[in-house]
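It is worth pausing here to work through a concrete case rather than discussing structure prediction in the abstract. The textbook approach is simple: state the sequence, then state the predicted structure, then interpret. We follow exactly that order.
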Amino acid sequence: MKAILTLVLLFCLTAAGCVSYQEHAAARTARLREMYPRGMSKEEVQAKWGQRRPDFSASRPIKGWDAHQNQYIAKKLKDVEASTGQKVESVDRYWGPDGLMSLCYCWYFYDSGGKIVDVEWQYKSD
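Step two, the predicted structure:
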């Protein structure tokens, strides 16, 4: 009986942890959207990050994001285009501290004029 209760408790804690991460990511993305609104220029984003430069950048391949060599990036960019209804021409990803004990990625998706289409917060794990 104790084993069953332990398993049920572990399952509930695991499920609650997944939801709280998703809620945390959504809240952090919303805050990022307030700090970096749609239409802000790439130069303004870079100025806010100061001396730090993106650890990853990519431009849309001629044949579209499907042709990008990294399928994770290809899917991420296609998802952003689908959710915003706008074409993403380039992406920059910065990373930095998020609180006292964790790190995060901040993704910036730009149109052909170098203006923000959308942003996304992501937890950075080792």
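Step three, interpretation. The radius of gyration is 18 Å. The longest strand covers residues 116-124.
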